[in-house]
Amino acid sequence: MTAHQSREYRNNVVSELSRAFPRADPRLFSAILKNPRESLFPEIPVESLYGEERAGGFAGRPAPSVFEVSKILVESGIQKGDQVLLVAPTDPYFLLILSELTLRISIFEENPSIAEELSVAVCDLGLPHIKIARDYSMFEAISRGKKIIHVDFSGKDTSLLEFYRRIPEAMLFCYVFENETTMERTTCF
């Protein structure tokens, strides 16, 4: 694939996204144009990466499609300077696009092997300032004052349910996949 073809795919997806999300922060579209997704998923055909298919992310977790990444970031209304806690992140592309909206990102990942993979990924992405917490006892302290984004592909992650019930709805953005193609925001898991 040539750089020109890659740019064409990104231009087309941004055109579609701007129609779907007319009030989106223009920085979101700039981030998508600036960051070729195929550089992070070189084994996947580019037409799939900019379509509705999901690539494999960290530890085999499905990576949201570009449309799903955009939906999450538009609905959460991330502004420059916002503090974000990303719970159980799914893939490097989401992190990269989120980092274009705010650099104030923390990650909570309880699985030690995935946390290690994330540590390497954030450094490879040039984001070594992102801190990764692994201990539930620290969750409440690290989440204070932050927007929380949690995408759960299994629909079974209930470990933080009690804590999430105490978070104001405007600060909590939980997404569950209802089936293989639908992602919905939910108030709690």
Q: Can you describe what's shown?
A:
The chain is α/β, with parallel strands linked by helices and 189 residues long. It contains 8 helices and 8 strands. The protein has helices spanning 3-20, 26-34, 46-49, 66-76, 92-101, 112-124, 139-143, 161-164; strands at 55-56, 62-63, 83-87, 104-108, 131-133, 147-152, 172-177, 183-186. Helix 2 packs across helix 5 (92-101). The chain is globular and about 50 Å long.
Features:
single chain; 189 residues; alpha/beta; six-stranded mixed β-sheet; two-stranded antiparallel ribbon; 8 strands; 17% strand
How many strands, what sense, and barrel or not for the largest sheet?
6 strands, mixed
Summarize the helix and strand pattern as letters. HHHEEHEHEHEHEHEE
Assign an overall shape: globular
Question: What proportion strand?
Answer: 15-25%
Low-confidence stretches: none
Widest sheet: strand ordering: 5-4-3-6-7-8
Number of strands: 8
Structural class: alpha/beta
Give the integer mean of the pLDDT values. Answer: 88
The protein's oligomeric status is: single chain
What is the tally of helical segments?
A: 8
* Through-space gap between termini: 40 Å
Rg: 16 Å
Q: Level of helix content? A: 25-40%
Give a brief rundown of this model.
The chain is of the alpha/beta class. It is built from 8 helices and 8 strands; from the N terminus they run αααββαβαβαβαβαββ. The N and C termini lie far apart (40 Å).
Question: How is the topology of this model organized?
Answer:
Layout: H1 3-20, H2 26-34, H3 46-49, E1 55-56, E2 62-63, H4 66-76, E3 83-87, H5 92-101, E4 104-108, H6 112-124, E5 131-133, H7 139-143, E6 147-152, H8 161-164, E7 172-177, E8 183-186
Parallel strand pairs: 3-4, 3-6, 4-5, 6-7
Antiparallel strand pairs: 1-2, 7-8
Helix pairs in contact: 2-5
